[in-house]
Specification:
With about 290 residues, the protein is α+β, with helices and mostly antiparallel strands. The chain has five helices and twelve strands. The longest helix is centred in the middle third of the chain and has 18 residues, at about 90-105. The radius of gyration is 25 Å and the shape is elongated. The model is unreliable at about 5-35 (pLDDT under 50).
């Protein structure tokens, strides 16, 4: 979620009726157990609309609207009766592996990706049938101010989409909307070649030990301002002199629970819209 500070997402069982040949008394009908589904493993590039568990019946063509695309499928060698639970170390380990796999699949590395990562597992039925895998799934992330966890429906594949600006997976610049008190209430994505007031600077790491992602945190704020100063090539704490504020997006609670600690930092220059990038601008360029 965003924060701002001045420099300051039956087959029914076939019933076999066994009829007895005894002329005195018919045999009772037998009820065999339902047939178990065959193990299922999704192929890389398969698309889905459901979170968490993946099954063949849930896949959709990628040229139709969908939310998730499988970027990688890895084997599971440990023994569990059910897929790993939310918040477990096994899910966190898979998530960390998926960060690298998704970056490679889309063709670019964070922080320049407007995507979210999900870890998928077989459905409970498929798990019982012997499926043992996890999938690294990628979804396009909404750039709405109040929707850092929202996933957008997309059409087509995001494989190697980082090289295609029209795919919309690069983190854009933006124009922020403020209320009378100067608080950011919304923002609209813009090409960085057009006039804008917000620019992505990079990532910092939260050191918070909280169970949920902190929304307003002094350590994150300080780290973002330090990063912005280095990005602009101005002395630390001089950002306010040049009308620059900081905006940051922390991970969603689900990402935080999985071990994600990276925070996206943006510079915000509301009084002086600019075109291009302010990287390395220095005092004379501000």
């Amino acid at each position: 979620m965003p924060s701002i500070r001045s420099a300051a997402v039956a087959a029914a069982a076939l019933l076999l009726l066994v009829t007895g040949c005894d002329s005195k008394q018919p045999q009772a009908a037998a009820s065999p157990s339902p047939s178990a589904p065959a193990p299922y493993t999704p192929a890389v590039g398969t698309c889905f609309n459901f979170e968490d568990q993946r099954d063949a019946k849930d896949s959709v063509p990628c040229d139709t609207e969908h939310q998730f695309e499988v970027a990688y499928v890895g084997p599971i060698t440990y023994q569990l009766d059910i897929p790993p639970l939310e918040g477990s170390e096994r899910r966190a380990t898979a998530y960390r592996e998926c960060r690298t796999k998704v970056d490679a699949y889309v063709g670019g590395a964070h922080p320049g990706l407007l995507v979210k990562i999900e870890v998928g597992y077989p459905s409970d039925a498929a798990w019982r049938a012997g499926s043992r895998w996890y999938s690294c799934d990628v979804s396009k992330e909404s750039f709405a101010w109040n929707g850092s966890t929202a996933k957008e429906f997309v059409t087509g594949s995001v494989k190697n989409a980082y090289a295609n600006p029209a795919a919309g997976v690069r983190m854009p610049c933006a124009v922020a909307t403020q209320d009378k008190a100067g608080h950011v209430t919304d923002w609209t994505a813009r090409s960085c070649s057009t006039r804008h007031t917000v620019e992505l600077v990079g990532l910092v790491k939260s050191t918070s030990k909280a169970k949920t992602a902190p929304r307003d945190d002094d350590q994150i704020a300080d780290a973002c301002f330090d990063l912005i100063a280095a990005y602009l090539k101005v002395p630390v704490d001089d950002e306010e002199k040049y009308g620059v504020n900081a905006i940051w997006f922390t991970p969603s609670d689900r990402e935080w629970e999985a071990g994600e600690r990276r925070v996206r930092c943006y510079l915000h220059r509301p009084e002086h819209p600019f075109s291009g990038s302010l990287a390395g601008a220095g005092p004379s360029g501000l």
